[in-house]
């Protein structure tokens, strides 16, 4: 391993160690890769707390929605062979969504989450107690009646990927998990990856999942049910094979997996973009979330299920990627993945990952501020997702403020009350400490950190 690789590996281990402790994660595994193979592979903590078994880069995890890039690749292989029409009516293949409101839903619309079907909570259908005894596909079909026809945007739908699993079976004849195994996982060299949940009990290096309940970590066992939308079991090292297929234009080690033009479509924006507050372009390709990172395209996916989280991110321009998984659901795996990408690119995570920068800023500005002679006191406290709460003591006023402008030594948060005004909380670094200029309409107060 070269000096730079050692430095990158050390930085990754250091960052992961701090992050794991902050987020109370039992175990985390991560691999940085390029199109040639693995650059850095590491595991920290425990894949099973009770036995103390260590997490490794080869630990099998329930990677949940990282199933979608794999299932999309399976469908695209059928399209590549001419067995499915990308623009074809899904109802011509499987009679599940053949009579929904509006125009017929196409295969492409399901692949890109752009069918207009809103979130259908299909992953929770078995736990819903409303007196109806609906099977999974009945639930998906019923929810499709809420299809939105008056807007054009990316709307993530697990149900759509359950239907794509049915599509594979209808066209090929093999069960989707067998087809995906034989036509995608095996050619990619993902030999231990599977849709069989028993692998988590029989493999020698597999996670035990955990969730937080009343402040304590409790064991969560995945026993199947997430299907083609989220049932994949894999390791970060094996997931790099999927990422390398993207980096090498549809090939892995000289083996052609998919036509390069179809692969390019899969890893570029195909859905309408999401509305964003920072003017970034975010949406979906075919099985991949499409966004921006370090002024270039990022193809990625997040996976989360009760007991585990996972992430894969690929930077085709830089020829780099990261795959990771952890045995707890909740902590921000996508933020962690982007932080590791930043380190792999030789940069500081806070300089490239907005969520990390905001977290640092929120920690910096949290505290108590006093006006002249302490005539007014304002308490600033962190709220989830980069927000802060401002409480003006003695005035029975508490508001939540959103980040408006984040600089190197000036941080502005805003509140938009119902009267049309714009309130601003501007924090400025001074020689004597932080200063808060709080403007609430016509009232502006200067306060200093106590």
From TrEMBL:
Residues 21-334 form the Beta-lactamase-related domain. PANTHER family: BETA-LACTAMASE-RELATED. It comes from the Archaea. This is Serine hydrolase. The keyword Cytoplasm does not apply. Keywords: Hydrolase. It comes from Saliphagus infecundisoli. InterPro entries: Beta-lactam-related, Beta-lactam/transpept-like, Diverse_Enzym_Activities. One of its GO terms (molecular function) is hydrolase activity.
